[in-house]
């Protein structure tokens, strides 16, 4: 089971790569279609003014917010030998909810659906940390 704790991390990396590719394809296509010179979108303010579809870019940034704590939780679990069934279940549930969040964000982007997936993922992440804290300090 010790190595299994890293599988959810690889799944999150795969999700990040997929969103990055979508961002790249979307941006390059719009820049070619509208003949936008790369230098004219050199800053985030310039990009926001010129590039109309920021869904994938916004989601890509999201994948470096809460998931940072997720990756750290997996390292803590691995180092402390806490990669048990509950830890893995919470980790995979977080990944699933992040996939749902990304699909909504990069797809039809209904804010309340996206928020619900984000909130559920956040709650699972806090539960994962609470579980690790329990195992480390209270058990």
From TrEMBL:
InterPro entries: MAPEG-like_dom_sf, Membr-assoc_MAPEG. Keywords: Membrane, Transmembrane, Transmembrane helix. The chain crosses the membrane at residues 6-25, 68-95, 115-137. Its main location: membrane. This is MAPEG family protein. It is found in: Membrane. The keyword Transmembrane applies. It holds the Pfam family MAPEG. It comes from Luteimonas lutimaris.
């Amino acid at each position: 089971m010790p190595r299994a704790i890293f599988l959810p991390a690889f799944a999150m990396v795969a999700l990040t790569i997929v969103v990055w590719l979508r961002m790249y394809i979307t941006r390059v296509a719009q820049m070619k279609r509208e003949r936008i010179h790369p230098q004219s979108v050199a800053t985030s303010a310039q990009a926001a003014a010129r590039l109309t579809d920021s869904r994938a870019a916004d989601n890509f940034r999201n994948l470096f917010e809460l998931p940072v704590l997720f990756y750290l939780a997996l390292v803590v679990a691995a180092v402390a030998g806490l990669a048990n069934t509950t830890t893995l279940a919470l980790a995979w549930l977080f990944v699933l909810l992040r996939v749902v969040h990304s699909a909504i964000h990069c797809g039809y982007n209904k804010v309340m659906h996206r928020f619900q997936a984000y909130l559920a993922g956040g709650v699972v992440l806090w539960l994962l940390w609470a579980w690790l804290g329990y195992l480390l300090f209270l058990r």
